[in-house]
Amino acid sequence: MQLHVADHPLIRHKVTVLRDKRTPSPTFRLLVDELVTLLAYEATRHVRVTECEVETPLTSTTGTKIADPAPLIVPILRAGLGMLDGMTRLIPSAEVGFLGLKRDEETLEAVTYANRLPEDLTGRQVFLIDPMLATGGSLVAAIEYALERGATDVTCVCLLAAPEGIDHVRVSLGDRADVKVVVAQVDERLNEVGYIVPGLGDAGDRLYGIVDL
Ligand code: PRP
Ligand code: URA
Fold it and tell me: 161: which of 21, 54, 61, 183 fits an S-S bond (Cβ 3.0–4.6 Å)?
């Protein structure tokens, strides 16, 4: 698993405003959208492309286009839906699948209530989007659905992550798949009811930049 923590002052600024309990909902939505677009730029660094010919006003030349099959973007419902526009703005040709996962707030286990993924994901780049990576149960379940359909190239885009959730994803996957997780910020820890506690803590300081875990 490769973890990429955004190292950019604009992202840190926007996360701070996002957290502010006084931030009104329209601003919150706008910030999520902006953050996703910034993270998507990084998350799509290795999107598959092919060469193509393009006719310019002067001459024809060789250009680049996103390869077939088009990437698949999968918001994890419900909160992941708020990140969809930001992703598709950068890759408008992407297809969209949906996973409905609900965290049981007693057991903290992920419960699946909807699965609208294509049956065959062989050769598809898959982008899973969900704002919160807390215990990691939901993200691991989503990654497993992608892997069991043949995906080998999975990138997860999250806004906030807890160190415990990152570890859970890493341990659950082991050597089975090369999954990339791109996050705006790694927070301090989970609290006793599995919610992410804000703050950088040791993990935030340690996990900065790109880390192979
Ligand atoms: C939140 C969040 C993640 C999950 C994270 O969704 O969007 O999907 O919890 O928790 P985990 O890492 O411990 O699994 P929630 O289950 O609250 O559903 P919702 O988006 O429909 O509110
Ligand atoms: N949902 C949230 O909103 N926060 C968490 O930390 C976990 C699930």
Answer: 183
